[in-house]
Amino acid sequence: MRQYLIRRFFVLLASLWVASVVIFTLVEGVPGDPASFMLGVNAAPDTLAALRTQMGLDQPLIWRYLHWAGGMLTGDFGQSFTYKVPVASLIAERLSVSLPLAVIALALSVALALPMGLFAASRRGRFSDGTVMAGTQLGIAVPNFWFAMLLVLLLAVHWQIFPAGGFPGWSHPLGALRALTLPAISLALPQAAILTRVLRSALIETLDQDYIRSARAKGLSRSRALTRHALRNALIPVLTILGLQFSFLLAGAIIIENVFYLPGLGRLIFQAITQRDLIVVESVVMVLVFAVIVVNFLTDLAYAAVDPRLRRRA
């Protein structure tokens, strides 16, 4: 088990290094001069040269990469030229919105998908199973931003239960949770539909195994065999989807954050791209990649915790 953890940890470090090189190369290789974009086409040459020096654009590419990567190792992401604040504080401020939103949405997704997947698998081939599958197909097909606008019209404008947008900050915890409720529901429903289908398929495949038939032959009811034996063995594909979903919810909520005017990471990176604030774009994307790789690492550990065969093999 220790060798398995060490091996996965070195894979994590190598993935982070490769990702940093790719991100820096792609962002820095975008056509156009960020200094010219920020000052405008009529900027004086000496002013343009001073800004390029301030942004470090006059230095060699390899030196700029080493300076950026070395700063990240010490927690220094540089200075935003648009917001005039350290990028690290900017990311921390926006992460305080995106991370709780992703956690709440993932919790709602699991809370919806687990009972629906168990229900559909226990009634395979029946009308209720078909109803659940039709509902999940609808949840996958409907865009989450369209569903978000419906929630705003119904629960914010018509019934006025939740706010239509904005974020009051965590100094008002109840108001902050109310502000994140509708975005979390909008993000959770499509993910719950996907997770339900994956869980149902994994459970049905597991229910056809010999040890389930043996448990049933010993007198164990179908529901007990489903929850005590089949569920744990069906968790491997479910954990894979959960890891991917958390990464998507953290990094892919740009549209939802713009619909609800949430100051999260998705909206920050969208604004940084339009303003050509390269240091913010590189740093935010690197943080998101780091989150994805760490979540995948934790998912691998969860595999070993769920399946003892992986521990023995490791």
TrEMBL record:
Predominant cellular place of this UniProt entry's protein: membrane
Matches recorded under Pfam families: BPD_transp_1, BPD_transp_1_N
InterPro entries found in the cross-reference section: BPD_transp_1_N, MetI-like, MetI-like_sf
Parts of the chain that traverse the membrane: 99-121, 142-162, 174-195, 234-256, 284-306
Subcellular location(s) per record: Cell membrane
SUPFAM superfamilies membership: MetI-like
Membrane topology: Multi-pass membrane protein
CDD domains: TM_PBP2 (cd06261)
UniProt keyword annotations, A-Z: Cell membrane, Membrane, Transmembrane, Transmembrane helix, Transport
GO molecular function: dipeptide transmembrane transporter activity
GO cellular component term of the entry, any: plasma membrane
Family designation: Belongs to the binding-protein-dependent transport system permease family.
Name assigned to this protein: Peptide ABC transporter
Organism: Thioclava dalianensis
